[in-house]
Specification:
The protein is mainly β and about 800 residues long. The chain has seven helices and 41 strands. About 45% of the residues are buried.
């Protein structure tokens, strides 16, 4: 009855005048709910004739999406949760790997920095990972946010679970979750002595070790020690002539250690502390040159014969165009560079959670966190062996601290669960990016761009869940967010400052080359949802959330018009969903389906420009409005206790409703959403064979599919239209499918040893994770830099692992 009423309302609203998108949303909602209701009605009939036995149902997955532990099937939002075994079977060792399991998630990387990923959920994505621009997907470790996105991959070991919350999380997770949130939960100390040790070996010189050790010292105190090392040579080879010939790229040296302790101070007070240290040194990720714009200053790099004609520079410059021809004629893992590339990150942090049970219905929780982050990188952006066309170094430090105080309770005979709290966050850091540009042509080298940030955020929140009836529940929440942002900019060369005075527009003197900008932003956010239990294992829900991403400043700004702060962006969504466990005969089924629409307003978009001294940069604009419509399906099929099939699918259709360039008045609404596949899917098949006292064999195959995407993150539709048709394919990634295989033997011959083997990217597919697209500038009055490069994903990798459990 509820579904029919929703459909009738939806159709009635559109009787008079409906847009194509409104018709699509309503049709999808009506058809999805109608099909699901009829399908589950049939399933109920089947289930009633064959009543399932106790223990036959699928494993219950616990999540903390509403800041309290509850079953994922009872939470009225779309959430994907993976336990420790699933993370290991899928070899999710970084959040980049996670997108092969969660289709709605996209992870990309600009240039050659594997430690600086950019995350997207449901099409909501920042342009790049840069100080001054907050993320759209927040990553939490032990309930404490990790910022910036650099280094978020380092905690991906010894996890108890990983949760992906989809859509804006406006109440309980606050700011900068307009796309969603990823929650990493480490394993807690066990109350019995024991652990495991793992070693592994793979191709490209990979070797790894991992340790997990539980140490109970008393009934009230226990510790866990865990650590990981990874070393690999790299899958790319520098084929440029000279001293760098034969150097490897794409490898890493990772060292991680974590100590956690649980102390039951009294029967009602628990103190949980985690101290972690992580270091990841990589030899970079080489990019591959794709195209050069011959109408730019790059024409000067044409060799000693000067086929492009004189350009008023030292004409004894190597040919960049010859480098392009070489790149197009060789394997993607053979790259050229004139410099050592590296991307090194070191992080240490501490989290303390104190939980006080004030009564049977009232709990006080304190969550404090501190993180110290340092990174150093050198990368050859021009992807050639020619010195100084475009290279960059980056040093960055950032310290951030946060504190959250929660009060959780129940009332009215447990019909009303509520949580309220206060939150504070501060980050203080510096990002310095010196480099060279057009050496031999441009006398202004090296350039230096620096941004120092000091940002604080304050909020209070409250959310309640009221059970109107045993089957029907209402959830409502509100949060007030207040952000203070301050940024000090500096941009110069040895000869001059490239910053202009905010008042006069004149270039600042070299000895006073800095501009300090500050502003504050505030926004209420919230949640409203209604869920109905058709029966204990079938949940229908409708939810709407308002999410907020703070405003800020452009670290690359050099002129008064660019100094202006960009506004916050907001996302309001409407999500209709169903979560159901059911049977077809003896086959166990779990079906989770969500259809949503997101109203995306004041979108922060970064577009490519070139500053007055010729350095490629960017300007941030609030790109008006967009709509994102999507459907997500997670289907589990378990014909037997030993065989299971997991099918996940995400349809994402984002479109700008209104985007006008504030400088030119050009209509930019046809600009594609970058790194957002319209169709994405994942499938995994797992089969286990009990060996009757000799352990258990496990065989697994998984595949992930992503349809065509644009990777031109700094390009608008006007820039795309000015780009030659022959270059456009280099700014896109065609659809591709990745296949992974693994096999394992748990408890080998009844022992404490486990052994496993894996192959990832079995077919050795070529696919791009990102790159630099500067063939054209955002506006025709700004000269473009003129290059296109791509950063490719890993080729086929394989290895074996041995674990000892004690």
């Amino acid at each position: 009855m509820t579904i029919m009423t929703q459909g009738a309302i939806c159709m009635a609203k559109n009787q008079a005048r409906r847009t194509h998108r409104q018709r699509m949303i309503c049709a999808a909602a009506v058809s999805a709910t109608t099909v699901l209701s009829s399908g589950f009605a049939h399933a109920q009939a089947v289930a009633s004739s064959t009543e399932p036995q106790v223990g036959q149902s699928l494993e219950e997955v616990m999540v903390t999406a509403r800041r309290r532990e509850e079953s994922a099937q009872s939470v009225p939002i779309a959430v994907t949760a993976l336990g420790a075994a699933e993370l290991e079977n899928h070899r999710v060792e970084s959040l980049e790997n996670l997108q092969t399991v969660v289709p709605a998630l996209s992870v990309s990387a600009a240039s050659g920095r594997p430690n600086a990923p950019v995350y997207s959920l449901r099409g909501i994505r920042p342009t790049e990972a840069l100080y001054g621009q907050d993320p759209t997907v927040a990553v939490y470790f032990a309930d404490v946010v990790i910022s910036p996105a650099e280094g978020t991959n380092l905690g991906m070991y010894d996890l108890a679970s990983l949760q992906v919350l989809k859509g804006p999380q406006g109440t309980l997770f606050g700011r900068n979750t307009t796309g969603g949130a990823v929650l990493l939960t480490p394993k807690r100390p066990g109350r019995e002595f024991g652990g495991d040790v793992k070693i592994g070996f793979g191709n490209y010189g990979r070797n790894e070790t991992q340790l997990g050790l539980d140490m109970p010292f008393a009934d009230s105190f226990a510790m866990r020690l865990s650590g990981r090392t990874i070393d690999s040579d790299g899958y790319q080879t520098n084929v440029a002539p000279g001293p760098m010939n034969g150097a490897k790229l794409g490898g890493e040296s990772t060292r991680s250690a974590r100590v956690s302790a649980v102390w039951d101070v009294t029967d009602n007070v628990e103190n949980y502390t985690i101290v972690s240290w992580d270091s990841k040194d990589t030899n970079g990720r080489g990019t591959v040159l794709q195209a050069i714009n011959p109408a730019t200053t790059l024409r000067c790099y044409d060799g000693p014969t000067n086929p492009n004609g004189p350009c008023g520079a030292n004409e004894a410059l190597p040919s960049y165009f010859d480098a392009l021809e070489r790149a197009r004629g060789r394997d993607r893992n053979d790259v050229e560079s004139d410099m050592r590339q590296r991307d090194e990150t070191e992080v240490w942090g501490i989290v303390n959670t104190t939980t006080v049970s004030l009564s049977d219905t009232l709990t006080l929780k304190s969550i404090a966190g501190y993180r110290d982050f340092e990174t150093y990188s050198e990368y050859d952006i021009d992807a050639s062996a020619i010195p100084g066309i475009l290279t960059s170094m980056q040093t960055a430090t950032l310290q951030h601290a946060s504190y959250e105080l929660q009060l959780l309770g129940s009332a009215f005979d447990n019909r009303f669960d509520w949580v309220t709290g206060l939150y504070w966050y501060n980050e203080d850091g510096v990002q310095n990016s010196p480099g060279d540009v057009l050496v031999g042509v441009n006398p202004n080298n090296p350039f230096m761009q620096l941004g120092a940030v000091d940002n604080s955020s304050y909020s209070f929140f409250a959310q309640g869940i009221y059970r109107l009836t045993p089957e029907l529940s209402l959830t409502a929440g509100v949060r007030w967010n207040y952000d203070e942002k301050e940024m000090t900019l500096s941009s110069k060369t040895p000869a001059a400052c490239s910053l202009r005075d905010p008042n006069t527009g004149a270039l600042l003197p070299a000895d006073r080359c800095s501009v300090t900008l500050s502003d504050s932003f505030s926004q209420p956010t919230g949640t409203l949802s209604l869920d109905y239990k058709v029966r204990d294992d079938v949940l229908l829900y409708a939810a709407s959330r308002l999410g907020y991403r703070s405003g800020g400043f452009n670290l690359r700004a050099t002129t008064p018009v660019e100094y202006a702060p960009f506004d916050p962006e907001t996302v309001i969504d409407l999500e209709l969903g169903i979560k159901a466990d059911w049977f077809v005969g003896d086959w166990r089924m779990r079906s989770n389906v969500a259809a949503y629409n997101q109203w995306y307003d004041d979108i922060q978009r970064t577009v490519g420009v070139t500053n007055p001294i010729g350095v490629p940069g960017s300007a941030i604009q609030n790109a008006a409005k967009a709509n994102v419509f999507g459907i997500e399906v997670e289907q589990t099929i378990a014909p037997t206790d030993n065989l299971s099939l997991q099918l996940n699918y995400a349809y994402t259709k984002p479109e700008y409703d209104d985007w006008v360039d504030p400088f030119t008045g050009d209509d930019l609404t046809d600009t594609p959403f970058h790194f957002t596949p319209e169709h994405a899917a994942a499938a995994s098949l797992t089969y286990t064979v009990p060996m009757q006292g000799a352990g258990e064999l496990r065989f697994s195959a998984s595949a992930s599919y992503r349809s065509h995407v644009w990777i031109n993150s700094l390009q608008t539709i006007q820039a795309i239209r000015r780009t030659p048709a022959s270059v456009l394919p280099f700014m896109q990634q065609d659809a591709y499918t990745l296949l992974d295989l693994s096999a394992g033997w748990t408890g080998v011959m009844g022992s404490s040893f486990d052994i496993s083997a894996y192959v990832k990217n079995v077919a050795d597919k070529e696919y791009s994770l990102g790159g630099i697209q500067l063939y054209e500038s955002a506006r025709p009055d700004i000269r473009p830099f003129g290059i296109v490069t791509k950063a490719y994903g890993e080729p086929r990798t394989y290895g074996v692992e041995l674990r000892y459990n004690f």
